[in-house]
Specification:
This protein is α/β, with parallel strands linked by helices. Helix content is 37%, strand content 15%. Strand 11 and strand 12 form a beta hairpin. It binds D-malate.
Amino acid sequence: MPKLNENYLNLKQNYLFSEVGHRVTAYSQANPDKKIIRLGIGDVTRPIGENVIHALHEGVDAQASSETFKGYGPEQGYDFLRNAIVDYYAENGVDIEADEVFVSDGAKSDTGNITDLFAQDNVILIPDPVYPVYVDTNVMNGRNITYINANAENNFLPMPDQNVHADIIYICSPNNPTGAAYNHAQLQEWVDYALANNAIILYDSAYECFITDKSLPRSIFAIDGARKCAIEFCSLSKTAGFTGTRCGYTIVPKDLKFASESGSEMSLNAMWNRRQTTKFNGVSYIVQKGAAAVFSEEGMRQCKENIAYYQENARIIAACLDKKGIRYFGGVNSPYIWFECPKGMESWEFFDYLLEQIQVVGTPGAGFGNNGKYFFRLTAFGSRENTIEAMERFDRLF
Ligand code: MLT
């Protein structure tokens, strides 16, 4: 009989968004006549920009002729895309090199897969609340987690405790689910802490394109010293509407080197390259053609139009919460609005209440950690029409 990975017994029965999906399906089957508005999972609704669509078509056409046909590609991504990503960073004043960029099918996979590179007995620091993938993937590997509290008192931007040692630190900024975004000085404090502890920061910047405040960093590599202590994960899901198309990238600097137990030097860039070339055959050529077009001038202009559309949705949601006198975080520099559940309700109770009373789906804060127990997340990724209707229904509630 095979011995199974019993760490799975320590997970909640369902992944957060699967649980939300099950509850919504059950409600909709019992109430087929009700119009449900989904502002739960952060899934985009705007179609992909024309420029990118054109490039995707070109990618398909290339597969139709023996002159241009592509079989296996480089596991790390085609140079044309890696170079486009390097240029995108350079435009934001950040220097990275093409062989530090690893193209993947998205930040979710990479933030989970990166755990392959680390031994079991690390002190792992994860904010609570946060994107559940960080916690679940470490639990699957049987690792212990030390939580750092993110709460209303620290504006959901926890800072390092100099009395606590960490080896691996997860940071998501702009944050999923709270929408809070670190400034330069705060990130510098985290980088200095990581350097002092000989630790590594796993930095998820999947929502960087929502940063409107030009003073805020869009990459951890805008911070002095970060190349020696950070890996960055990014995604085209929200930047370019690729939630279904799938493409992301991870930056692993070549400066990231740590000593093994026996004292030999280990490079995380080389390890990730070894891991990816062994376990991953790369993102399809077609998708990478589309992804490269995201970084063209016209492609990015079209992406920004969609981002502005979602930002307006966020403003509509925030305006409704303002009117109701409900305290919230995010909504600016972020597509997520994180608010206190009214009337002291717990988040799953509020989830059921919203679904039953007004057929609006959000995400219960408890799904992101204990500190989310009395909070709720709405996404700005719905259609304009549905966002307005959801807020009209919400406004009539109490
Ligand atoms: C979310 O709703 O938190 C995100 O869409 C999940 C993801 O990006 O995987």
